[in-house]
Amino acid sequence: MPRYVSSDEAVDILATSTRVLVIGCSGGGKTTFAAKIAACLNLEFQSLDRDVRWLPGWVERDRAEQRETIKHLALRERWVMDGSGASSFDLRLPRTELIFWVRVPRRVALLGLFKRVFRYYGSVRPEMADGCPEPLPDREFLSYIWNFEKRYAPLFIKRIDQYGPEIPVVVFRSHYEMDAIVKSLTERG
Questions:
Q1: Cα separation of 18 and 79, whole Å?
Q2: pLDDT per residue rounded down to tens, the chain (189 residues)
Q3: Transmembrane segments in this chain: where (predicted)?
Q4: What are phi and psi of 57, to 5 degrees?
């Protein structure tokens, strides 16, 4: 079982953390949260979508090349990494000091996705690779979000137990909880 900690404990852990992983369902706000945390802590922001997975034109980078890139990113000393691919937890978790797991209800994730599409449709959002304009979501992507908790949460738990059982994990069920962490960090200065 992952080592769950409270948000209050997380703020104290963040005071000495230099490598933080943010995982969760698309549309849940994990990328926005990860970027804010990175800015507050003056850590490098790494996005698996932008820095690893996608090439211009929504061409997916070769899996072996993705793993090699993730390996090099994880070896850096100071980062906040945004990305949920459990297949690379073996590379990332041994270097991670704290995990934030965004587990908002599916309606919140879907609403977040639609807000993102409304804001960025046809243009490249800041956290995405160059040449990958925001598309309309297809049935496969909507299904991914709809079934995320059932399909991926058990895998996340298994991989955390396997590769980082001692790593503190904070679970967010709302944007309010994420905002409270950012506010605490901002107030600490």
A1: 6
A2: 899 999 999 999 998 999 999 999 999 999 999 999 999 999 999 999 999 999 999 999 999 999 999 999 999 999 999 999 999 999 999 999 999 999 999 999 999 999 999 999 999 998 899 999 999 999 999 999 999 999 999 999 999 999 999 999 999 999 999 999 999 998 876
A3: none
A4: 80, 20
Count CB neighbours of 104 within 10 A. 23
Structure tokens at 70: 């993730």
Q: Where are the domains of the chain?
A: 3-188
Least Cα distance to 25 among 156, 158, 169 occurs for: 156
Instruction: Return the CATH superfamily for domain 3-188.
Output: P-loop containing nucleotide triphosphate hydrolases (3.40.50.300)
Give the residue carrying structure tokens 């905002």: 179
